[in-house]
């Protein structure tokens, strides 16, 4: 069976604080046409946690192999772009590490091009860059990725909306409560100010939690640190 009930005692005792609407994208965002299809037309109702939240995917690590913890390459196979080390920690609502979480990461190349048939951006592909990784958080909830900094790209069929450099994350914890799909941004990027997805989060503090922290002194790579909070009031905004 693909999914099973894991009604773990510690999970069922948890009283999850409701998410603050100001820290999560809400409703239809002007300028971001896809939100009209992603937001329910009816008002939301609160209900208690059940099997749908306290169960989770089984044996993910067996079914989906860990892949590509290193995206930048070396020597002649080195991807074009600034080398970065990304240190991410996955935590729950109390700041406790979500050990064993499966984290899928993807981003475009330094020219702003994804390896995907839907990417119509007129930018060059990089033969040495694929752009996707799948990693398992260690006992302290940490994952590390060596890659290149992604470029900005224009969003098709919009009036000049450019996405700032960003990295996509999909997190699978042990239960559905720990499911998170979000994006990470880079500090100091002017396009952060005008990005409809980042600015769909109204609370400035919650927005700044989506932006990685630069750690000086990384040597040959720029080092960034980031935290993903999978649930609770301080949960990272869900940014598909
Ligand atoms: Fe993207």
Protein architecture, described:
The structure is a single chain. The strands form four sheets. The chain has a four-stranded mixed beta sheet, with no helix packed on it. A four-stranded antiparallel beta sheet has the order 5-4-9-10, with no helix packed on it. Mean pLDDT is 88; it is low at 1-10. A hairpin with a 7-residue loop joins strand 9 and strand 10. 30% of the residues are buried. It contains five helices and twelve strands. The radius of gyration is 18 Å and the shape is globular. The protein is mostly beta strands and 240 residues long. The protein binds fe (ii) ion (FE2). Residues 163, 166, 168 line the site of fe (ii) ion.
Features:
240 residues; 5 helices; 9% helix; globular; disordered N terminus; binds fe (ii) ion
- Classify the helix fraction into a percent range: under 10%
Poorly predicted ranges: 1-10
Strand content: 25-35%
Average of pLDDT: 88
- Derived structural class: mainly beta
Q: Strands of the biggest beta sheet: in what spatial order?
A: 6-3-12-11
Largest sheet: 4 strands, mixed
* Distinct small-molecule ligands in the complex: fe (ii) ion
How many whole angstroms does the radius of gyration measure? 18 Å
Q: How far is the N terminus from the C terminus?
A: 27 Å
| Elements, N to C (H/E) | EHHHEHEEEEEEEEHEE
Compute the number of strand runs. 12
Q: How large is the count of helical segments?
A: 5
What is the structure about, briefly put?
The chain is 9% helix and 25% strand. It contains five helices and twelve strands.
